[in-house]
Amino acid sequence: MTLNRNYEPKPRFVERIKLLLDNEDDVNKFFEVAKTCGKKSIRVNTLKISPEELVIRLKNKGWKINQPFPHYPEIVQIDSILQPGELGKATEHILGYYYVQEITSMMPIIALQPKDDDILLDLCASPGSKTTQAAAMMDNKGTILANDLNIGRISILSANLERCSVTNTILTRHDGLELCAKLKKSKTRMKFDKILVDAPCSGEGNIRCSPRTYVEWSESLLENFGKRQKKLASKALELLKENGEMIYSTCTHSPEENESVVQYLLDNYDIKILPITLPIKTRPGISKWKNETFHPDLKHAYRIYHHDNDMEGFFLCKIKKLSDNKKGEEK
Ligand SMILES: C[S@@+](CC[C@H](N)C(=O)[O-])C[C@H]1O[C@@H](n2cnc3c(N)ncnc32)[C@H](O)[C@@H]1O
């Protein structure tokens, strides 16, 4: 197992993790696992091949693999040590038979469960892990509007959609806030059955594979992300149909970017938080951070720590819109 020893967390990062976790052992485990790399994982692209067929092909290549969740045979972990780039260069990858994706990153679409007649907005979609996963779950039916701000990342998204034979997806390149404003003002007043806001974030959950996060990390960075996330999530929520469902997710642990954002939505919109059943170990959303006390239903938001599952860290929350009513003025 490769060790990422070159980067060290800042003292304030360590203090905050201590506040979030249960006890000293928990904290020690968090930082020990942070120095290691997790197993590689892939998601079978069921638009092109069945899990059974792909598993046979991969085993025939000599790869040791396992399918850790009986209910999700498309989720495959690679137990063999592969050469750098080998997963991406494999014929089966080029043919679009699988998508290289961290298991925790598969959880938002598992939680959202898009159906084949849904209209889905994926507001921050590049490079397309979750768009391609949703398209497969929808069997290329329904419609996905996949948007991202970054043109370079949109090109990768576009290539991934083509490689995976996704045909139910419209691509746009907009600032998510502008896109939401345009759609809200449009004559058709387009609204969505389901929305994913997989928000740009500080990436604290990715420190195992991206330890440089430690270098860029600061509390003001978290606060700035929090402000942007509140705007993106609330403007997206305004495009959700009544009784529609939205997932808000990040790959970070900071409450400023997680519970605080969901609390902001609860304060301003007529929504409720829905519990979800996920196949990996999760911890409930926290109830208090600094001077902020969160709604008790935030226990149904999910914190995923890398040392609980030997995966990456993540946060997600499923929100149901009860009505278009807004509570008071926006902050
Ligand atoms: C966490 S990544 C999304 C990952 C993607 N959902 C996936 O599963 O492959 C966040 C994305 O948000 C995009 N982004 C950043 N600011 C944005 C904005 N204002 N509007 C739309 N997208 C934005 C970034 O370019 C980045 O691709």
Provide a descriptive summary of the structure in words.
With 331 residues, the protein is an alpha/beta fold. It has a domain at 104-326: Rossmann fold (3-Layer(aba) Sandwich). It is built from 13 helices and 15 strands. The protein has helices spanning 11-20, 24-34, 51-60, 86-89, 91-94, 103-112, 129-137, 151-163, 176-185, 213-216, 219-237, 259-268, 306-309; strands at residues 40-44, 65-66, 75-78, 98-100, 119-122, 143-148, 169-173, 192-198, 240-250, 269-274, 283-284, 288-289, 292-293, 302-304, 314-326. Strands 5, 6, 7, 8, 9, 10, 11, 14 and 15 form a nine-stranded mixed beta sheet that branches. Strands 2-3-1-4 form a four-stranded antiparallel beta sheet, sandwiched between helices. Helix 11 packs parallel to helix 12. It is globular. The model has no long low-confidence stretch (mean pLDDT 95). Residues 105, 123-130, 147-150, 153, 175-176, 198, 200 line the site of S-adenosylmethionine (SAM).
